[in-house]
């Protein structure tokens, strides 16, 4: 990697800069990017889903969050790169301390304006580059994706595109705006009811759209990626344009006000609109909140997808209970077996992210991914963490279970910490809360049992989940770092507290929850909301310390297990159903 770093620095004088920012991002600013946009991984070796590099003439910094602290040090040469925590030691503070007065280059396609605004306070001069300097030295860069876009049927979408466009356009008219740039490919997919295969785990056709205040849409997608069926699906209200014509279309907005979401829109758009004489105005992507609030069809699709997923999980857990103590399993072979079970389910398309299959010490790497180089046996008498999910055409799933491989009893310390994680998980899932409460208000509830023992975890408690879209969806989340977006009916979020002891084991328990109106109570002063649990899979009883559980917590686990058995048991073979019956027995003591 040293030669790549040197080649990048060799371009600084030509570009008139003293440093450059290299985010893990593409022009659509999504979490997952195609191989052609893996510039951060090419430069540093870091393969995580979030990170940023700052390369100066004499020093180089890699910023990662708590999920990747261990992974980054394993993948990246520490003699070339200095590691910084993305939240605790943000890029702006490092720029202010290490590069005052310097000229720092950036690709305006890869940074939203909101992020650049924060960096502009660091006492440096930010320089927008005409091309990406990595691309100029990446000789074998893969070609961009070019798969066909496809319709997302109304049977799964629940609302036709014309109705969605009309509602979104109405918000623009109310704000006095002539149009909105939809740079987030998830919003384009949702608004037009289209999907694609440009990314391995997120069913997107990477495209930009412009929605005008009357509901018409300009879609910027290579026409060769749209066959006659898709064109008919899009209808007369959607005009298809080659992406190269985007600057000309933006120029036509001279004298008009155009909404840009500063958090999810590349800074390039604001620069182009201002140059054309248009007025960019900050405002939330008009599709983002409606997309998160699943309609009735999408809600039922989520239930159906999770029931199918639960069958695959039960089959996997029954198989694992037999196979793990016998030996012969590896992290990759176990994950492959779970994927094979899922692939038999109706409407299955792909995993929703690369499975995190971590045994023993690998479970402590929060976003660990087993590779042929790291794949290790799953041994008896250790903890095994499996975090995985699937994309079904009617819904997206994400589940984590921590398992004891047996056959002996789990150590007391592991059971105590697992139980504290479980208690936080239970507290969140059972919560009733007033309308208007946001995710950051709830995060501490899942941490309280760990905090009582002086423990914590360095990641958020929950993220939003799309409907046959991204497994990580905004704008709502359950995290101290999340924006305070009020939770609303139809939102799907994860509930995944954890604990990680580096070098030893990791614990995480995750279910997906759907926000619903809560039944009223006598004297209730305002509307309340509650969570409907979508995920249906037993917790590992061998890791539960019953002495730590309150009676109400035991009853909650028993009720959940009874539901799992009632809904999933009839869908299994006799042998798998027998295993599930044992796994769902009522707690004793």
UniProtKB/TrEMBL annotation:
<keyword id="KW-0378">Hydrolase</keyword>
<feature type="domain" description="Peptidase M24">
    <location>
        <begin position="302"/>
        <end position="516"/>
    </location>
</feature>
<dbReference type="InterPro" id="IPR050422">
    <property type="entry name" value="X-Pro_aminopeptidase_P"/>
</dbReference>
<comment type="similarity">
    <text>Belongs to the peptidase M24B family.</text>
</comment>
<keyword id="KW-0645">Protease</keyword>
<protein>
    <submittedName>
        <fullName>Aminopeptidase P family protein</fullName>
    </submittedName>
</protein>
<dbReference type="InterPro" id="IPR036005">
    <property type="entry name" value="Creatinase/aminopeptidase-like"/>
</dbReference>
<dbReference type="InterPro" id="IPR032416">
    <property type="entry name" value="Peptidase_M24_C"/>
</dbReference>
<dbReference type="InterPro" id="IPR029149">
    <property type="entry name" value="Creatin/AminoP/Spt16_N"/>
</dbReference>
<dbReference type="InterPro" id="IPR033740">
    <property type="entry name" value="Pept_M24B"/>
</dbReference>
<dbReference type="GO" id="GO:0070006">
    <property type="term" value="F:metalloaminopeptidase activity"/>
</dbReference>
<dbReference type="Pfam" id="PF01321">
    <property type="entry name" value="Creatinase_N"/>
</dbReference>
<dbReference type="Pfam" id="PF16189">
    <property type="entry name" value="Creatinase_N_2"/>
</dbReference>
<dbReference type="Pfam" id="PF16188">
    <property type="entry name" value="Peptidase_M24_C"/>
</dbReference>
<keyword id="KW-0479">Metal-binding</keyword>
<dbReference type="Pfam" id="PF00557">
    <property type="entry name" value="Peptidase_M24"/>
</dbReference>
<dbReference type="GO" id="GO:0046872">
    <property type="term" value="F:metal ion binding"/>
</dbReference>
<feature type="domain" description="Creatinase N-terminal">
    <location>
        <begin position="4"/>
        <end position="130"/>
    </location>
</feature>
<keyword id="KW-0031">Aminopeptidase</keyword>
<dbReference type="InterPro" id="IPR000587">
    <property type="entry name" value="Creatinase_N"/>
</dbReference>
<dbReference type="InterPro" id="IPR000994">
    <property type="entry name" value="Pept_M24"/>
</dbReference>
<dbReference type="GO" id="GO:0005737">
    <property type="term" value="C:cytoplasm"/>
</dbReference>
<feature type="domain" description="Peptidase M24 C-terminal">
    <location>
        <begin position="527"/>
        <end position="585"/>
    </location>
</feature>
């Amino acid at each position: 990697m040293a030669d790549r770093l040197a080649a990048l620095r060799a371009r600084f004088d030509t570009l008139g800069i003293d440093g450059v920012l290299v985010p893990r991002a593409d022009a659509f600013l999504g979490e997952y990017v195609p191989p052609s946009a893996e510039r951060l991984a090419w430069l540093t070796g870091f393969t995580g889903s979030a990170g940023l590099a700052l390369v100066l003439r004499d020093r180089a910094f890699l910023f990662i969050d708590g999920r990747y602290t261990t992974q980054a040090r394993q993948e990246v040469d520490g003699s070339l790169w200095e590691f910084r925590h993305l939240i605790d030691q943000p890029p702006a503070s490092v720029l202010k301390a290490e590069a005052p007065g310097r000229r720092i280059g950036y690709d305006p396609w890869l940074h939203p304006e909101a992020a650049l605004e924060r960096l502009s306070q660091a006492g440096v001069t930010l320089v927008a580059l005409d091309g990406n300097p990595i691309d100029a030295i990446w000789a074998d860069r893969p070609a961009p994706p070019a798969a066909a876009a496809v319709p997302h049927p109304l049977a799964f979408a629940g609302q036709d595109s014309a109705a969605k466009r009309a509602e979104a356009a109405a918000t623009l008219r109310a704000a006095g705006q002539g149009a909105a740039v939809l740079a987030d490919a998830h919003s384009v997919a949702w608004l037009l009811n289209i999907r694609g295969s440009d990314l391995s785990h997120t069913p997107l056709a990477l495209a930009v759209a412009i929605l005008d205040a009357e509901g018409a849409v300009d879609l910027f997608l290579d026409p060769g990626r749209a066959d006659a069926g898709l064109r008919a699906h899009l209808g007369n209200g959607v005009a298809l344009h080659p992406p190269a014509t985007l600057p000309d279309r933006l120029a036509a907005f001279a004298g008009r006000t155009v909404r840009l979401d500063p958090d999810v829109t590349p800074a390039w758009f604001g620069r182009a609109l201002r140059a054309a004489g248009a007025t960019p105005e900050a405002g939330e992507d008009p599709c983002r909140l409606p997309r998160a609030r699943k309609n009735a069809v999408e809600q039922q699709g989520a239930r159906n997808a999770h029931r199918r997923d639960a069958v695959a999980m039960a089959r996997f857990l029954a198989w694992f209970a037999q196979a793990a103590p016998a030996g012969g399993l590896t992290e990759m072979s176990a994950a492959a077996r779970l994927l094979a079970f899922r692939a038999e389910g109706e409407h299955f398309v792909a995993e929703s992210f690369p499975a995190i299959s971590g045994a023993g010490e690998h479970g402590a790497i929060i976003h660990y991914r087993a590779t042929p180089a790291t794949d290790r046996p799953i041994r008896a008498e250790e903890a095994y963490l499996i975090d995985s999910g699937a994309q079904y055409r009617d819904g997206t799933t994400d589940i984590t279970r921590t398992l004891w491989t047996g056959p002996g009893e789990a150590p007391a310390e592991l059971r105590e910490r697992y139980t504290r994680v479980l208690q936080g998980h239970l507290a969140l899932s059972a919560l009733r809360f007033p309308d208007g409460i946001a995710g950051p208000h709830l995060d501490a509830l899942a941490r309280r049992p760990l905090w009582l023992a002086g423990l914590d975890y360095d990641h958020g408690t929950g993220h939003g989940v799309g409907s046959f879209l991204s497994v990580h969806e905004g704008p709502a989340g359950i995290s101290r770092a999340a924006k305070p977006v009020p939770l609303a009916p139809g939102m799907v979020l994860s509930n995944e507290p954890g604990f990680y002891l580096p070098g030893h084991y990791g614990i995480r328990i995750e279910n997906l929850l759907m926000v619903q109106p809560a039944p009223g109570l006598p004297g209730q002063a305002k509307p309340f909301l509650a969570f409907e649990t979508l995920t249906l899979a037993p917790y590992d009883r061998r890791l539960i310390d019953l002495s730590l559980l309150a009676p109400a917590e035991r009853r909650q686990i028993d009720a959940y297990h009874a539901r799992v058995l009632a809904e999933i048991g009839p869908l299994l073979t006799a042998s798998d159903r027998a295993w599930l019956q044992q796994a769902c027995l009522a707690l004793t003591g």
